[in-house]
Amino acid sequence: MSIEVKHKDPLLCSPVKFDQSRSSQAKPPTTTSNMKYSLALAAFLSYATAYPSVLEDLVARDRGSSGSSGSSGSSKCAWNNYKCPPVKTVAAAAVISAKRTNCGPLPCAPFNATDQYVSTTGKYAYKPPGKSDIRGPCPGLNAAANHGYLSRTGVTTQAETIAGLFAAYAMSPDVSEPLAIIAINQFGDPVGQRWSIGGPIRGVVNPVTQNSGISYSHNNYESDGSQTRCDAPVTNGDAHSLVVSRFADTYINRLVKGRGAVPGTGYGYTLDSFAKDYVFKSDWSISHNPLYVSAPFAGTIVAPVAYQFIINFMSNHSEANPSGWLSPEVYKSFFAISGNYPNFKWNPGQERIPDNWYRRSSLTPYDNPAAFSDLSIAGAAYPDSLRLGCNNGKVNTYVAGDPTPVLAEFQTLGFAGNFKQFAPGNQQCPGNAYNPIGPTQNY
């Protein structure tokens, strides 16, 4: 595949390049930024202590990024004509962020084809959802259901979530289990111990959870500032439909040179480029969504970590690149996109795990410490990638809180932490009162 990277469409966000000459003139970080930077260094050094050779590897590795742009999407949420503001950057932390592999600050375990191969044949063959099957806003969950790693109905259990997401993506149980528990008890069917990867489960009535599914768990599980979906208040509650122009912006503008199948060659996506992508998408929300909220759990933690999930769970691994790379082709497959840039088409509910695809190693599953490392390093490099706050009912009225206590809670207890203790009230954040309930998503 040939990717044109010289042209820049002025209608979309141009690529952000790390400029060493400009970074030396960056303003000193604030006290909060210093704390975030310290957390990032602590996370990084905790990994590096176990693997001292990583320091030499980070210093030696090349960096760079480039891209171009274009496409269309929902008229209410189209990326066209939006010009991204500059990303606030802390130079020293950005060096660490840019040097990460697609496994984080340290490489994955050595490649093992038998362990890492993900079958897409037999009982795991791709099958599009039937008329009564549910799909939702998460491409990774949709793909897992389409291949039978989760129930093809789109309604699953805690045990199946843990086993299925480890088999498909090497997601550690300390990540999958609390997320499943939250989905069951807050948005699913606690009586039947089930949860929906999309909208409501048919036949279930629960006044406590409202049986909303994760599609309508707004500001509790699902959040504003998605990479490819629109904010629910902007589209009358639809935060599950992909907006093609948003996908196209990421597809072409977040490519990083030298991150292909063979390190130092080709183009791909990285934790660093997606951390900046989250800043761009949340900036859009602040300037277009009067009810924008970044709540402690759904916004400060889940929204940015969802971008990191894409890199950690969708990257393809090989002998030549054991830490993985995410190519444009694989990115399109997981997001149910067909066609060539800029003429993309979204095929709802048809997310696929590519054939001949190898997940991260079972020896280095994606766990809570890795997620904390991703968040803290990104937050130290790009302070706006950790947001706690909201608009007050009008666009561009964002008032920011201090996300540091939220990150500290996450470091201690992971996704099982008590994040509601940090939540601002409805008077401070009118968007907290927005509670969309919609139909089951059938494709």
From TrEMBL:
<dbReference type="InterPro" id="IPR036851">
    <property type="entry name" value="Chloroperoxidase-like_sf"/>
</dbReference>
<dbReference type="GO" id="GO:0046872">
    <property type="term" value="F:metal ion binding"/>
</dbReference>
<keyword id="KW-0560">Oxidoreductase</keyword>
<feature type="domain" description="Heme haloperoxidase family profile">
    <location>
        <begin position="122"/>
        <end position="379"/>
    </location>
</feature>
<keyword id="KW-0349">Heme</keyword>
<dbReference type="GO" id="GO:0004601">
    <property type="term" value="F:peroxidase activity"/>
</dbReference>
<comment type="similarity">
    <text>Belongs to the chloroperoxidase family.</text>
</comment>
<protein>
    <recommendedName>
        <fullName>Heme haloperoxidase family profile domain-containing protein</fullName>
    </recommendedName>
</protein>
<keyword id="KW-0408">Iron</keyword>
<dbReference type="InterPro" id="IPR000028">
    <property type="entry name" value="Chloroperoxidase"/>
</dbReference>
<dbReference type="Pfam" id="PF01328">
    <property type="entry name" value="Peroxidase_2"/>
</dbReference>
<keyword id="KW-0479">Metal-binding</keyword>
<keyword id="KW-0575">Peroxidase</keyword>
